[in-house]
Amino acid sequence: MKYYLSVQDLNKAVCGPSKLCRFWVFVEMVGLMNRSRSMAEGVVVMVCPVLLALALDKVDHKVYGHRALMAMLTMAGVTLISGICPVLLLYFSQRFPAVGYVKPVVTVGLATLSYSCLLILACFIPQPNIVPNHIRYTVGAICGFLVLLRTVFYYLGKNVGTYEQNLHDILDESHEFLTGVTGILFLGLEGLALESHGNQMFPKGGAALGTISFIVCALGVCLMYLEMTPPLYFNLKTWTVGFTLVLDIFMAVGTFALLIVTMFKLMGVPALVLFTPPVGIIGELVYRVAANKEVTTPDTDSKVPASLELTRVTFTGFLAVSITAISNTSPSRLTVFFLLFVAAAIVFGILWRLLTQSQIRSGLPYGASPAQQVASSANLASFCTHFFIVIATILFLAMAGAARGK
Question: For residue 161, what pLDDT band results from cuts at 50, 70 and 90?
Fold first, then answer.
């Protein structure tokens, strides 16, 4: 049996500054650095398109009004600056240790400002014909209250310097996943807002897509902030594994719901075929674990979580084509099937990522067999992701050829 000491226990045992205590502070700073980097990356992805649209005058002044546009510009600038500054401060502190470590409280304070402005920006972007005002006000108020509540508990409690390295790994991977998924959905919400200036998408279900995107984006910002400032009970391994896994699954389900609604608007009941990827992968994993099937494939991806880059690029293409297809009164069958295969690739890509995260490995019983079985299911999800992307690429080339023929 292994026993772990918290920083408070170490401080009681060792009086004054010591190398051991400085090591635990260093571990805490490394964890904050990893999450600060993913936060900065996510903020750039989410905010830069807003700044670009405002700078190039792509936003209709009559729709938002001059004051609202100035507020959006201010919030976007503050979000971007306060989201990147924590990385610079932590890097400066690690580069020049003689100056002293930047307190995590400073980093969390900047993260609080960045996420709060990002939440306000998410409420500003959609218009009433995309997200009704009562939904924006209600969801915005609830999410704002949750951020405020977590901030108060963070500064009143002693939450700094209490986590072990393996728990930091779980938090870092989950925070990266939440940031990546929220960033992609944020781009979709911005695209819907820009396309709806002519009020073309509202009759075809733009409000449903916009509402789902907004709710998932707003809650995603809250979940990102929660993992940026984990509570004290994250000391417990079971809490860390279980709670972060629940948050990741929630965002995955929200993304899946958006894909289902989009495809249902385009092709009707046949869009339910998208349930095949999650049911197939999860069913295959449950069968292997329950039947204790032997796995002969090498365990190559069990130690490194799958990258989200492929899923991000695929999702970006899905958003670009789907927004145009929904605004069109009669999209071609080629476009619809392209979107269907891209959506399936996105679902497989998210499953691939979730099956390779530390939460799955940490939550498994001791023994090599379950870990190898999960790795085998992850490899199957990876194969399906790349296979469906190949098919979608062929369909995309056919779409491009048909467009050139016109």
Answer: very low
One domain, residues 170 and 308: no
Cα–Cα distance measured from residue 406 to residue 400, given in angstroms and rounded to the nearest whole number? 10
Residues spanned by the domain of 113: 1-235
Mean pLDDT for all residues in the chain = 78
Per the document, the length of the chain is 406
Helix orientation angle between 206-228 and 104-124, rounded to the nearest 10 degrees: 170
The runs of H, that is alpha helices, within 200-236 are 206-228
The tens digit of pLDDT for each residue in 350-392 reads 999 998 887 776 655 444 446 677 888 889 999 999 999 999 9
Band of residue 63 on the pLDDT scale cut at 50, 70, 90:
low
CA atoms within 13 A on the CB side of 179: 27
> If we measure between CA atoms, which residue out of 187, 214, 196, 321 comes closest to residue 266?
321
By C-alpha distance, which of 200, 342, 193 is closest to 262? 342
Q: How far apart are CA 249 and CA 254, in angstroms?
A: 8
Instruction: Kindly list the distances between the CA atom of residue 7 and the CA atoms of 14, 24, 159, 179, 234, in Å, as whole numbers in the listed order.
Output: 10, 7, 11, 29, 14
284 & 205 share domain: no
Last residue of a domain, one of 235, 256, 291: 235
State residue 50's pLDDT score: 84
**3-state helix/strand/coil string of 291-351:** HCCCCCCCCCCCCCCCCCHHHHHHHHHHHHHHHHHHHCCCCCHHHHHHHHHHHHHHHHHHH
